[in-house]
Amino acid sequence: xxxxxxxxxxxxxxxxxxxxxxxxxxxxxxxxxxxxxxxxxxxxxxxxxxxxxxxxxxxxxxxxxxxxxxxxxxxxxxxxxxxxxxxxxxxxxxxxxxxxxxxxxxxxxxxxxxxxxxxxxxxxxxxxxxxxxxxxxxxxxxxxxxxxxxxxxxxxxxxxxxxxxxxxxxxxxxxxxxxxxxxxxxxxxxxxxxxxxxxxxxxxxxxxxxxxxxxxxxxxxxxxxxxxxxxxxxxxxxxxxxxxxxxxxxxxxxxxxxxxxxxxxxxxxxxxxxxxxxxxxxxxxxxxxxxxxxxxxxxxxxxxxxxxxxxxxxxxxxxxxxxxxxxxxxxxxxxxxxxxxxxxxxxxxxxxxxxxxxxxxxxxxxxxxxxxxxxxxxxxxxxxxxxxxxxxxxxxxxxxxxxxxxxxxxxxxxxxxxxxxxxxxxxxxxxxxxx
Length: 435
Ligand code: GDP
Ligand code: IMO
Ligand code: MG
What we know:
By secondary structure, this protein is an alpha/beta fold. 31% of the residues lie in helices and 20% in strands.
């Protein structure tokens, strides 16, 4: 029995969906614990692509339980749409397969309107480049203690009372601050009640269900969204998302005890990408960056925006090892580097002549750092059908080894293509290493 967290080690889109799908084979429960439909997790199975925004990436296995924890901000309409899309593909999501925490906060249409209006009024250097899904405003309501929770769907009197207050407050912001049209209370109520009726059978106590599963010796897999450097506390604030993305939030965001986590896998691309604004020290705004973008098909799974691309940043990775307590890496998209003559890895930063081994927390300093690079030899071969490390060219193995050295932890998984089958499982994180 083991409980494993998968967390993004960079700025999101590291390939968490693919790795979670792969590891689900060894798990009994798969749990989302933070974020919402700002996430876009891609799975490719035998050439068929699925993108999940809210449903945990374990859903394709029919004998596993997927759970949406209290830490998630849940847009009920998006969840129902995802369920409908799966149904069209022949997979019916039932309450046996999916449980939603009664404490998860519901994301309402006015959250997205405020998110978009808030971004629109910012000057170009201040825009965060959010996904516009309403994630920040929904978490604001949660912390302000005015949010509507999934469990409120079971108490219409409370639901109406909370919604009345929220609509009044949001309309004040929409109209007076942003000069936008107000939302209609009756329409919002209809929306939430209609979705709510369909979602009610899925509501449950995720914390108790996880504890029961743990005591029965089941394996639990926690699926992080976004990435460590988008964490609201530890990321490149204010260019971050509005939740804690680090592994420790797997516990808070699902009601699971911290002492029960056995392994934390950090997902990292073999290079770096970022979508949205904010500092990105190893960004390449040249033909090499374009090559990475084209070869890696680096366009957002949620918004379709092009992802900014750059060399691997060892500082980003080693900070993630510390912030998450990573026990192993899952290195994705190694295949994208095939054909590049020279590869660079940032191993530290230079800030006005001073060497830094970790990211400065001051955003202006972070924007000013220069990465210190090490150069590694590239390889020409197509590696997408490799099934073991010894089938990789020596230069690719050297690159992986250097990544492990920079991180100070081993690679558990190496991914050489988007498909579930294009993966080298070097160490199964559900098999606990001796400490
Ligand atoms: P997530 O948000 O972390 O789940 O990642 P996304 O799904 O947003 O983005 C990762 C993209 O890379 C998806 O299109 C995946 O299908 C793709 N992908 C994952 N691993 C690999 C890999 O090893 N090689 C290639 N070429 N693509 C990969
Ligand atoms: P997955 O789970 C990459 C980024 C947005 C923006 C910032 C804040 O697929 O890795 P938000 O809408 O959350 O308020 O936007 O965070 N962002 C992501 N970038 N992958 C994600 O999720 C992201 N979710 C949010 O681009 O910069
Ligand atoms: Mg993504």
